[in-house]
Amino acid sequence: MAEFGNPADETQDAPLEGSPMLDPSTLPGVPDAFQRLWTPHRIAYIQGETAPADGGCVFCQAPAVAEEDSLVVARGELVYAVLNLYPYNSGHLLICPYRHVANYDEATLEEVAELGSMTQAAMRTLRAVSGAHGFNLGMNQGKVAGAGIEEHLHQHIVPRWGQDSNFFPIIAQTKAMPQLLGEMREILRDNWHSGSSD
């Protein structure tokens, strides 16, 4: 007897004698072509449960978190570097001004300059400690541009390696993270400015 979804069975689309043709996609419990990797920990982020209880800005509060619990890896006068809690790759950093400002064109010249120099230091450090081959740098300005937190300016620094793309992100929309955030935090803190020219 033919089974739905069995590609080796050439009779799978043929209706049984005297029965109407059924569309397998309308049947409950019929397997489809997708595998699922269940990530229930992401629902807290999706539903906004990871936002501060007082409704405040996570980027305004991050610098005040106790050092042992913080993901901040470097502090400047006007900006700081923090590991992304939901990274695209190990070492994915965000450079944020301390001042609560939403858009790049609202930042002061001094903030822009320090954001640039902190970005350079982050790239040098990531290259030295992880051997990054390249980087994706960017800012998503506004929800329509992909900003997850649009009310506080932040620049992404995503280290890349020649072999960091495999079938997971392409087929399963899943990234395999080879290093825990806490481990990466300690490596970056201990080696900040490694390989820098200053």
Describe the structure.
With 198 residues, this protein is α+β, with helices and mostly antiparallel strands. It has a domain at 63-191: HIT-like (HIT family, subunit A). It contains five helices and five strands, in the order ααβββαββαα. Strands 1-2-3-5-4 form a five-stranded antiparallel β-sheet. The longest helix has 22 residues, at 109-130. It is globular and about 80 Å long.
Overall CATH architecture of the domain at 63-191: 2-Layer Sandwich
Which structural class matches the secondary elements?
A: alpha+beta
Q: Give the distance, in angstroms, between the N- and C-terminal Cα atoms.
A: 73 Å
CATH class annotation of the domain at 63-191: Alpha Beta
Count of discrete alpha- or pi-helical segments spanning 4 or more residues: 5
CATH homologous superfamily of the domain at 63-191 - what is it?
HIT-like
Task: Compute the average pLDDT.
Answer: 78
Helix content: 10-25%
Shape: globular
Detail the poorly predicted runs: 1-13
Compile the SSE list and pairings:
Blueprint: H1 42-46, H2 58-61, E1 72-75, E2 79-83, E3 93-97, H3 109-130, E4 134-138, E5 155-160, H4 167-172, H5 181-191
Antiparallel strand pairs: 1-2, 2-3, 3-5, 4-5
